Amino acid sequence: MSNQVFFGKKYSKNILEYFYEEGLNKYFPFDERTKKYSAFHGVKKIDEPYHAELDDLVRLHKLVRKRKVFTILEFGVGYSTIVMADAIKKNQIDFQKNNQKPNIRISNQFKIFSVDTSKDWIQKMKKSIPKNLKKNIQISHSEVYLSTFNDRICHYYQKIPNIIPDFIYVDGPFNLDIRGEKNGLNYKNLDRTVMMGDLLLMEPTMLPGTLILFDGRTNNARFSKNNFQRQYNYKYDKRADITTIELIEEPIGEYNENQIIFCLGKNHLKKMRKV
Asked: Which of 119, 175, 246, 270 is geometrically suited to a Cys-Cys bond with 233, CB 3.0 to 4.6 A?
């Protein structure tokens, strides 16, 4: 294991061991000139993104691997896109080696669909995607507009990837990218917390076993929790500043049940049925 400091922050032995053992460091080459790590290959000049947080990236990678995720929907492209693509690529390799594949029905297997509001950032990010992960990543652009849900202010992406994901990662949009206003209210005021309504729109067609992770955005996670109409397991981790919401219901059919058993295990299915 090499450096224990990443972007000026020290990390625990467990996080660093996982990071290097999984080979994630190859996506963050160290630049001797700038004395910094970067996830971006072949990009001469980029707008400075938020520094990568290894604990966040390792957590995402572990989740995707542990839950044997097939399809990811990500709001906000970034370092997480590459790391989760690496995890889902490894899921794909493991699945292909499996001689007893489950009887499931899933479109868009082993892909991460990331939607972002910045065309410039998308183009820069596309240049950074390693060749071995290109087939596992699809990035699209969408404007975000202010609207309401049950007469309460929120916002929506104009176009969401037409998929049924089993893992959703929420790390976008940025306040100033949200267009429009309602009764004089808008997102030019940076004190106003983001409040996406897209998950509420998607909720009726989500499959039992779907997991949503909010990176920060605690107010938005609470808004979703309070307006969802189905049965969920809600967990807030104050220290890590994340919220997870898992749809826990009786499977809707054979394919869904087989997927839950394969990805999460029979014990997890039993826990879902007890709720």
From this structure: 246
